[in-house]
Design goal:
111 residues; N-(1-d-carboxylethyl)-l-norvaline Dehydrogenase, domain 2; 6 helices; 69% helix; flat
Length: 111
């Protein structure tokens, strides 16, 4: 989406998806020996939506410029580590796959 953090945070469906992403990240982090708090993570996301309300994520900015994003190092990392630990990460996988699909269109449309 090309919506800003502030606009995204106004949508319940987005907040729900963010919460699902956080749950998966926390499960993978725990398996990696990193303790995280779900309430703190969600609070941080909410703070970003306020502090940077007019900004777009770096992935959204990359997509707007038809540049390859850092998705491999974000959601892709969670997906790979989840596989290593046998932890399902379907929401991260879906987000990763959608971004990679868009990125593929950059190279395919160039030919």
């Amino acid at each position: 989406s090309q919506l800003s953090y502030g606009k995204l945070s106004e949508r319940e469906s987005i907040r729900s998806t963010q919460a699902d992403v956080v749950k998966e990240v926390i499960a993978v982090a725990k398996a990696e020996g990193v303790l995280m708090s779900e309430p703190e993570a969600l609070q941080t996301i909410a703070q970003i939506a306020v502090a940077m309300a007019g900004q777009k994520s770096s992935t959204a900015q990359d997509m707007a410029r038809h540049k390859i994003s850092e998705i491999d190092h974000l959601n892709g990392f969670i997906v790979r580590r989840g596989l290593t630990h046998g932890i399902p990460t379907p929401v991260n996988q879906a987000l990763y796959a959608l971004v990679k699909l868009v990125e593929t269109s950059y190279t395919e449309s160039a030919h």
